[in-house]
Amino acid sequence: MPSSFVLSGLVAHTPTKDRFQIMEPGYLLCLDGQVGGLFERLPQAYAGLPCYDFPRALILPGLCDAHLHAPQYAYRGTGMDLQLLDWLNRITFPQESLYADALHALHAYEPFADALKNSFTTRAAVFATSHTPATMTLMRLLERSGLCCYVGKVSMDRNAPESLLSAPGADARADLEAWLGDALTGFERTRPILTPRFAPSCSDALLALLGELRKAYRLPVQSHLSENLDEVAWVRRLFAQDSCYAGVYDRFGLLRGEDVVMAHGVHPTPEEEALLREAGTLIAHCPASNTNLASGIAPVRRYLDEGVRVCLGTDIAGGHDLSMFRAIADAVQVSKLRSHFTHGAEKPLTLSEAFYLATKGAAGFFGPVGSFETGREFDALVLDDSALASPLPLSAPERIERAVYLDRELVLLHKFVRGQRIPLGNGKEGASP
């Protein structure tokens, strides 16, 4: 496919969180992997470019999943009656221990990478396990998918099975630097990310090492934050010198900057919220996981009002569904419950706000993505929503809303990442543009 082209159809995106910008028809220009503009009429200067017309389709930005666990994909939908810490000990840690076997890792990661490739996701931040060979297998599979992903070899040295713990002392540095030596070479779209599992599983020494490596290698960071009340209390006992959970990461240089994403943030203290805002940390809101594991409902409206950066994640397998459209719908739904419980003090999210969180809300961390504004990287979905039949004519906003809530009935015709079309293997892909 040429590096520069035009897509035409019903084009919609959220340059701001407050509303959709919709053009029907719209002409979406790709110039060498970047958005060249969105036009009501295609300028004559681009008339000679290939133009692929989808008059009955939706053209939307690619969706960003800022938090999920690749080894958990194999057992998603199990243990959903457990709370977080019991779920980790009874299901997650035993399952992740199996990834010491390279063949098991390959057999488990192949369907995950294939499912992510054929999903609505174009960018993802992915936890692997603590096993280097398995993590490299995952990175190679995701590189072949054509998606843009961060992949983290999980670091933890306490409060987990011995088979999952990082090497002690100087060996931990050698192990991580050996992984980084391989992970930083030979990949175009897949990049390493430092990944302390969560504070309770990391000693001061390990967190200090990760902070040093972040500075030395200029690496992004992902972890968990204030997900569950028992977890938060545990952190207070383990790190009594820190005034809040986020303060633990901050003390070791693992919190600040647009390249840091912390999953959940369900139970922040006022001091923690202020620190997150000051630090510019990105919170990955994972509504399905927080519901399944009985963690609670994150104060997303308050975060937005106070200037804390927020995006969305599926959190496979605490969350049971890989669809980011499902995550958007879940975010709206749980925000309605939180509004009820706060007696209206925190207003529910609108659809455009939740869609923004799944797209442009993750910009910065994933680079200049998430909308069709000129100069951003060209990530796009072409969706056939014709199966969502209605006896009455539907407006463009109604079609978008139904696509989000009824995503199982959509057909993903085409998917573009940095202007490159991803060959889909779902049996539903449209004819090649």
Q: Would you write up a description of this structure?
A:
With 433 residues, this protein is of the alpha/beta class. Helix content is 34%, strand content 23%. It is built from 13 helices and 17 strands. It has helices at residues 84-97, 102-117, 132-145, 169-183, 204-217, 229-238, 245-251, 270-279, 287-292, 300-306, 324-341, 351-358, 396-405, and strands at residues 4-16, 19-31, 34-39, 51-61, 63-69, 121-127, 148-152, 154-155, 190-192, 195-196, 221-225, 260-264, 282-285, 309-312, 380-384, 411-417, 420-421. Strands 3-2-1-4-15-16-17 form a 7-stranded mixed sheet. Strands 5-6-7-9 form a 4-stranded parallel sheet, with helices on one face. Strand 1 and strand 2 (19-31) form a beta hairpin. Helix 2 packs parallel to helix 3 (132-145) and helix 11 (324-341) packs across helix 12. It starts with a strand and ends in a 12-residue tail after the last strand.
Biggest β-sheet strands, sense, barrel: 7 strands, mixed
How many strand elements? 17
Question: In angstroms, what separates the terminal alpha carbons?
Answer: 8 Å
User: Shape from CA axes?
Assistant: globular
Strand order, sheet with most strands: 3-2-1-4-15-16-17
Rg is 21 Å
Please trace the helix and strand order, writing H or E for each element: EEEEEHHEHEEHEEHEHHEHEHHEHHEHEE
Please state the structural category: alpha/beta
Strand content: 15-25%
Number of helices, counting only DSSP H or I runs of 4 residues or more: 13
- What do the pLDDT scores average to? 96
What's the helical proportion of residues? 25-40%
Name the poorly predicted regions. Answer: none
